[in-house]
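> Could you send the DUF1772 domain-containing protein prediction when you get a chance?

Sure thing. Input:
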Amino acid sequence: MIDGPYFALTVLGVLGTGLVAGVCFAFSAFVMRGLGSLPPARGAAAMNAINRAATTPAFMILFMGAALLSAVLAVVTFVLWPEGTVELLVGSALYLVGVFAVTAAANVPRNGALLRMDPDAPETAVYWRSYVREWTLWNHVRTVASAGAALSYLLALT
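Output:
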């Protein structure tokens, strides 16, 4: 059984990855649908405003904190090799690869490209259609991975 500070880290892992799963789910379930239903110039401008707002301390502490916690849990798991090792390593891998790496490799580059475009330009309208489809697809991956990480950490506690 996991106990002491390791227990607290794992509980924080459940909470952090679970909260990120909720944010990602909201985007997959209705935010991107709503933005995609807007005219391209308005949708792109709104998404750019959301992306700028997402870099505030509150979200970055949650997103980066969950990544740091996942890395710490993975390292500590390799060192201590407690019960629940498989679940802890799976949870860490899901978050670090399925959320953090996917964000860096798939979502952030698309956000950067959109940010550099003039929302009213004709090429933005063309890009916007593929942006919404591709960004949302990768966000589905992040949603499932972060929910899976939370579940894996939770299972390690049982």
